[in-house]
Amino acid sequence: MKLLKKIKNYSPLLGIFLVLSTSCKTDQKKEEIITVETSRVDYLPYYEDESFTPNWITPGSEEEQTFHKIPDFKLVNQLGDTITQNTFEDKIYITDFFFTICPGICPQLAESMLKVQAEFKDDPDVLMLSHSVMPSTDSVPVLKAYAKSHNVINNKWHLVTGDKKEIYDLGRNQYFVENDLGVPKSLDDFLHTENFLLIDKNKHIRGIYNGLNRASIAQLITDIKALKTEQL
Fold it and tell me: What's the CATH code of the domain at 207?
């Protein structure tokens, strides 16, 4: 049971979890493969803190209504449009954090997000949201050029910039994307992570995935489809 609590993404399928140790400046990876067979479940779990301990809640229940939700925000995308939670009203979305000049993991994260975009490009219920962690340099024109060079579908995949404090607060205190459990961070500490988060139509976190791991991205796609069935 202790092992299961350390695994961040539960699935009704046989899961292969690849734990990667990586940085923005190097492509060297240390890999450990853990295979865990989990029991079938009716719903994806819910998450509410940086430990990513799964909470098994029935969708639509009173407990679900009061469970942790991503709060509203106000950012700007590559088209110069204001992006808020209204943009994702009644939508499932996948989110991550990046910056345009990152030479290491960000290109790989973009490739993973492109796979998700391709899988759901004709599905209006699924969107993507990538936050720049260098908003002072990732201006709207810079994001627009990046979007064009990476075949981003506008209004399907939002690349956003805005107030650094708001973006870092969202990443650390609402999405819990960093792996440094219990380590205090300030605005001066750079936020960078390979994690993708799956957010449901009610703004709950329903999964965390390693954006550098093909098996994890395949599981993300599977879980999006399961979530669509759950939230019909």
Answer: 3.40.30.10
